[in-house]
Specification:
Elements lengths: L1 H15 L8 E7 L11 H15 L4 E6 L3 H15 L4 E7 L2 E4 L2 E4 L12 H4 L1 E2 H7 L6 E7 L33 E5 L16 H9 L7 H15 L7 E5 L19 H13 L2 H10 L4 H58 L3 H75 L19 H14 L13 H14 L10 H8 L14 E4 L2 E4 L6 E3 L5 E3 L34 E4 L2 E4 L1
Parallel strand pairs: 1-2, 1-3, 3-7, 7-8
Antiparallel strand pairs: 4-5, 5-6, 8-9, 10-11, 12-13, 14-15
InterPro entries: Caspase-like_dom_sf, Caspase-related_regulators, Pept_C14_caspase, Pept_C14_p20
Pfam families: Peptidase_C14
GO molecular function: cysteine-type endopeptidase activity
Length: about 600
C-alpha cells in the first residue's frame, strides 16, 4: 500500500509541474517553387506544406511558414525567427528550393533572385551561415534541413566577375561551429538531389515518415531517411548530415508518457506472497491491499488453504481419537485380564478336581486370545487413523503447492492483461498530447517494513517463530533469525531485515528450527499434542510416562493375637451341599 501511494504521489507531482520537463519547440518552414528568372520547381511548395503539417501534428509550439518568398521577405522571416528561437529548446529550419555554392559558401536562393553575375550573390541570396546564426539562441538542438541540392539553373547565365571564383555543383561541405547543431542535406556535398516525380521529393517523403517518430533519436531517424532515399533512388542520391550531438537521446517528438499501472505495487506484493504460500503471507497481503483484482485472488488462495487445513485438522482429530480409544481399550483389557486372572487363580486354588483346573486353564486361554484379538483390532484402527492423518497432511501440502502455482499463473495472466491494456492506451494517445520526453518513473523499491513483514512470514514458515508478522523488526524477530543462523549454518545480520536474509530464508523448503513443545506435550509432525499415559502410569516432571509405585505393605509385628471366634457366614443363594461357596464361569457352576 505504501509503495503504491508513493508511486501515485510521484506521478501527481509530474503532472502538476509540467514546466519541469516540458520543452519549447519552434520551426520555420520555407518552400520556394515559383522562381521568376528560372524555370519553376514542382515539389518544394508541396514539401513545405507536408513538413509544416508534420511539425504542427508533432506539437511544436510555433510553426512559421513561408512560400515563394523574395529576398526581403526571406530576410525578415529569418530575422523574426531568430527572436523566436532565443528561448526555445529545439529550433528547426526547413528549406526547399534552389541552393548554390560559391567559393565554398552555401546560399539559399529566393524567388526573385536574378543572379546576373557572381557579384550579385551576396545581395540577392541568404547565406547558410546567417540561417545558423538565427538558431544560436536555441538551448538543446539547432537543426537545419536543406532540400536544396538541385542543379544550379543560374550557372549557365551567371557572369564571372572574378575568374578565380568557383561555383560548385550542389552544396559545399559544412562544419558547424556551434554545439548541438545538425545540418542535413538532401544529398551529400558536391552531389545533386532529385526533385522527384511524385507528390513529394524522395528526401521530403522520407523525412515525413521517420523524423517525427516519438522518442526516436535524430541520428537514427536521419539514418533511416538515408536508407529510404538510397532505396527509392536506386542508390543515386545519398542524404548526408553534418555536425554532432552529445550522448543523450535527442528526438524532435518525445516518447509518449505511458499510463501508470494502478496495481503495480499490489502485483509485486502478490508475487512475494505467492512465493511464500502460507496463510500468514496472504493475510499480510490483504492487510495492505483490501480491494482490487489481486485482493480477490489473494482471498481465493486463502480460502483454499483454510479448506485444506480444516481437512487436516479433522483427520488429526480422528487419529488422536482412535489412538485414545485404542489406549482405553488396551487398559480395559489389561484390567479385565488382571481381574480375571486374579479371580481364576483364587478359584483355581479352591478347586480339587483336575478337570476343573483344565477347564480353568482353557477359560484363561480363551480370555487371553479374545483380549489379543481385540488389541490387534485396536492397533489396526490406530494404523488406519494414522494413514488417514498422513493422507490429509499430504493433501494440505498439495493444496499449498497448488495455491502457489495458481497464484503465479494468475500473476502472469494479470501482467499480460496489464501490458495489453497499456499498449492499447499508448496507441490511442496522440503524439501531439505528449508533454515531454519523460519516461514512466520506476516503481519504488520495497521499503524496510515490507521486507521485515515478508521475512517474518518466511521465518514462521520454516519453524523459527518471530512472533507477530507485522513488519516490526523487534527482539522476537531478531531471536528467530538468530535461531535460523544456528540451525541453517548461516551468518546473517540479525539486527535488521535485509533482502539477503529474505532470499536465504525463502530458499528453505523444509523446517529449519526444531519444534519446541511445552511441558506435558510432545512433537507430532509440525504440531505439539498433549501426552497421554495408559492406565497405571502417570506423567512425571521430565515429561515421560512412569509406572505408578505399588502401595507399601504394612509392617508385621511379632505380637501374638488370640484367635477370635467368628460366626459362620450366611449361605449364599444358589450354593450347593453343606454351605460351600459357588460361582459360575464359562457357563458352568463350581462349588467348594
Amino acid at each position: 500500500m505504501r509503495s503504491t501511494f508513493l508511486l501515485f504521489v510521484g506521478l501527481l507531482s509530474l503532472f502538476s509541474c509540467p514546466s519541469a520537463w516540458a520543452e519549447k519547440r519552434v520551426a520555420l518552414v520555407v518552400g520556394i517553387s515559383k522562381y521568376q528568372s528560372v524555370p519553376r520547381l514542382i515539389n518544394p511548395a508541396r514539401d513545405a506544406e507536408a513538413m509544416s503539417a508534420l511539425f504542427k501534428k508533432a506539437g511544436f509550439d510555433v510553426v512559421e511558414s513561408g512560400r515563394d518568398l523574395g529576398i526581403s521577405d526571406l530576410r525578415r522571416s529569418i530575422r523574426q525567427f531568430s527572436d523566436t528561437s532565443r528561448d526555445a529548446d529545439i529550433s528547426v529550419v526547413y528549406y526547399a528550393g534552389h541552393g548554390i555554392e560559391v567559393d565554398g559558401t552555401n546560399y539559399l536562393v529566393p524567388a526573385d533572385a536574378k543572379l546576373a553575375s557572381d557579384f550579385d550573390v551576396e545581395d540577392e541570396t541568404i547565406s547558410l551561415d546567417r540561417v545558423l546564426k538565427a538558431l544560436d539562441g536555441a538551448k538543446r538542438l539547432k537543426l537545419v534541413i536543406l532540400d536544396a541540392c538541385r542543379d544550379n539553373p543560374f550557372t549557365k547565365t551567371m557572369k564571372r566577375t572574378v575568374s578565380t571564383r568557383s561555383i560548385g555543383r550542389g552544396l559545399a561541405k559544412i562544419e558547424p561551429s556551434m554545439s548541438d547543431t545538425l545540418v542535413a542535406y538532401a544529398a551529400k556535398a558536391g552531389a545533386v538531389a532529385n526533385d522527384g516525380d511524385g507528390q513529394n521529393s524522395p528526401f521530403a517523403s522520407a523525412l515525413v515518415k521517420y523524423i517525427a517518430e516519438p522518442g526516436l533519436d535524430l541520428r537514427l531517424a536521419f539514418g533511416r531517411v538515408r536508407d529510404e532515399v538510397l532505396k527509392s533512388t536506386a542508390y543515386r542520391q545519398e542524404p548526408f548530415v553534418y555536425g554532432s550531438l552529445g550522448g543523450e537521446t535527442v528526438a524532435l517528438v518525445p516518447q509518449a508518457l505511458k499510463p501508470a499501472d494502478p496495481e503495480a505495487g499490489a502485483r509485486t506484493d502478490y508475487e512475494l506472497a505467492a512465493q511464500i504460500g502460507t496463510r500468514e503471507a496472504w493475510d499480510s497481503f490483504l492487510a495492505a491491499h483490501r480491494s482490487g483484482l489481486y485482493a480477490d485472488l489473494a482471498r481465493a488462495q486463502t480460502s483454499k488453504l483454510i479448506t485444506a487445513e480444516q481437512v487436516r485438522v479433522k483427520a488429526d482429530d480422528a487419529r488422536r481419537e482412535a489412538e485414545a480409544q485404542a489406549a482405553r481399550r488396551a487398559a480395559e483389557f489389561r484390567s479385565q485380564l488382571e481381574e480375571q486372572t486374579a479371580r481364576q487363580t483364587s478359584e483355581a486354588k479352591q478347586k480339587i478336581s483336575e478337570q476343573a483346573k483344565k477347564e480353568l486353564e482353557e477359560a484363561r486361554r480363551q480370555v487371553a486370545e479374545q483380549a489379543k484379538k481385540q488389541l490387534e483390532d485396536a492397533k489396526r484402527q490406530v494404523e488406519i487413523a494414522r494413514q488417514e492423518a498422513e493422507t490429509a497432511r499430504r493433501q494440505v501440502e498439495e493444496a499449498k503447492r497448488q495455491a502457489v502455482a495458481d497464484a503465479q499463473k494468475q500473476v502472469e495472466q494479470a501482467k499480460r492483461e496489464a501490458a495489453l491494456e497499456r499498449d492499447k492506451i499508448a496507441a490511442l494517445s496522440p503524439p501531439a498530447s505528449a508533454p515531454g520526453n519523460a519516461a514512466l518513473p520506476a516503481v519504488p523499491q520495497m521499503d524496510q517494513a515490507d521486507i521485515a513483514r515478508l521475512l517474518q512470514a518466511h521465518l514462521k514458515r520454516v519453524g523459527c517463530n518471530p512472533g507477530n508478522v507485522d513488519g516490526n523488526w523487534d527482539a522476537a524477530s531478531k531471536g528467530a533469525l538468530e535461531s535460523f543462523n544456528k540451525n541453517a549454518q548461516t551468518k546473517l545480520n540479525v539486527q535488521l531485515a535485509s533482502l539477503d536474509a529474505l532470499d536465504s530464508v525463502r530458499g528453505k523448503t523444509e523446517r529449519v528450527c526444531p519444534l519446541v513443545c511445552k511441558k506435558g506435550q510432545r512433537a507430532d509432525g509440525d504440531r505439539c499434542i498433549q501426552i497421554g499415559c495408559e492406565s497405571g502410569y502417570f506423567l512425571n516432571s521430565g515429561g515421560a510416562c512412569e509406572k505408578k509405585p505399588e502401595p507399601a505393605a504394612r509392617p508385621q509385628t511379632a505380637t501374638r493375637r488370640e484367635p477370635v471366634a467368628r460366626e459362620p457366614a450366611p449361605r449364599r443363594a444358589g450354593s450347593a451341599g453343606g454351605g460351600g461357596k459357588c460361582f459360575t464361569f464359562g457357563g458352568k457352576t463350581y462349588c467348594e
